[in-house]
Design brief:
The strands form two sheets. Strands 6-7-8-3-9-10 form a six-stranded mixed beta sheet, with helices on both faces. A hairpin with a 2-residue loop joins strand 1 (2-11) and strand 2 (14-24). The chain contains twelve helices and ten strands. By secondary structure, the protein is an alpha/beta fold. It is globular and about 65 Å long. The chain starts with a strand and ends with a helix. The chain binds adenosine-5'-triphosphate and magnesium ion (MG).
């Protein structure tokens, strides 16, 4: 469905994308991960031509969208995009946000556009907020409106650029649930994400980007549990430690301090613990020894260490 070959893009003499090659089939859910600044957003923006590539080709159903004279409106209609910061129209209500492009770009009659918008809002669980302005919504709700707005154009592919990273942790789940639901309906999606648990559960494939190329790709199991190349191994290791620290912070902030864990806390902790779950023994040992180190350095208390261990499954 999409075939990218030898894609290149530089900014001011710095080559961000050097030689990106990848094929994406219909119905695939592909997660794109990698360190900051390695061109993940640039890659997505080249796909729907928010950026003009310097070289290479991007075939969508056999048509090269980098060819001169390509109708950009058509390209963007095929490839909807959902941004980290929602980019809703602040002066229009929710319904207006989801109907605008249907009417203005596709020429759908107003009544039909409203019916479709209401169906989509129902799907993302926001039918009762149709008349709210974006400012009156939570971040999670805004992002669900942005997804409904993208879906209203009947895109063939949806591109997500870190759809949950601007959200309060308690709202990440509701947005991921909508994306998971889309994945079930076999929507083709490319998702730049730092949510490793999500990448592991939902994607059919993971692309690890580094050095201006797709440095390593594979199933979630291959990339997260058995990375082969040095930079991927290092990246996955760093994620482990970051998640261990996040857990520690939650503990410090007293999330478990009253000895009870409510539903939301349990969900947050489970999400943080997810990437650890299926790690092979070697990585689990790595985490355990990192925890021991933190304990012996006095960074964490004995009680905290025990709590973390309990969360990790009684290591
Ligand atoms: N319009 C632009 N003009 C100049 N430099 C840019 C532009 N867009 C991106 N860059 C540079 O290109 C590099 C890659 O940026 P990009 O946003 O694609 O990375 P990323 O992988 O999405 O990072 P992050 O994980 O932080 O979002 C960065 O060094 C960035 O500063
Ligand atoms: Mg980015």
């Amino acid at each position: 469905m999409i075939a990218v070959s030898h894609l290149r893009k530089s900014f001011g003499g710095v080559a961000v994308l050097k030689d990106v090659n990848v094929e994406i089939a219909k119905g695939e859910v592909v997660s794109v991960v990698g360190p900051s600044g390695t061109g993940k957003s640039t890659f997505l923006r080249c796909l729907n031509r928010l950026e003009t590539p310097d070289g290479g080709s991007i075939l969508v159903d056999g048509v090269d969208v980098t060819a001169p004279g390509t109708d950009l409106a058509t390209v963007r209609r095929k490839m909807g995009m959902v941004f980290q910061n929602f980019n809703l129209f602040g002066n229009r209500d929710v319904l207006g946000n989801v109907t605008a492009a249907q009417c203005d770009v596709l020429g759908v009659p107003r009544d039909a556009a409203r019916r479709k918008a209401m169906d989509l809002l129902e799907r993302v669980g926001l039918a009762d907020r149709a008349e709210a302005l974006p400012d009156e919504l939570s971040g999670g709700q805004k992002q669900r409106v942005a997804i409904a707005r993208a879906l209203a154009m009947d895109p063939e592919i949806l591109l997500f650029d870190e759809p949950t990273s601007a959200l309060d942790p308690t709202m990440v789940g509701e947005v991921l649930a909508v994306i998971k639901d889309l994945a079930k309906s076999r929507m083709t999606m490319l998702v730049v994400t730092h949510e490793m648990g999500f990448a592991r559960d939902v994607s059919t494939r993971v692309l690890y980007m580094d050095d201006g190329v797709v440095y390593e790709e594979g199933t979630p199991d291959e990339i997260f549990n058995r990375p082969q190349k040095p930079k991927t191994v290092e990246f996955v290791g760093r994620i482990c430690l970051k998640q261990a620290r996040d857990m520690l912070r939650l503990l410090r902030e007293g999330i478990l301090s009253d000895g009870r864990v409510d539903e939301i806390e349990a969900q947050m902790l489970l999400r943080l613990a997810e990437p650890f779950e299926r790690f092979g023994d070697a990585k689990m040992n790595l985490i355990v020894s990192a925890l021991r180190q933190m304990l012996s350095d006095g960074v964490i208390s004995e009680t905290e260490s025990q709590q973390i261990s309990a969360i990790l499954g009684g290591v």
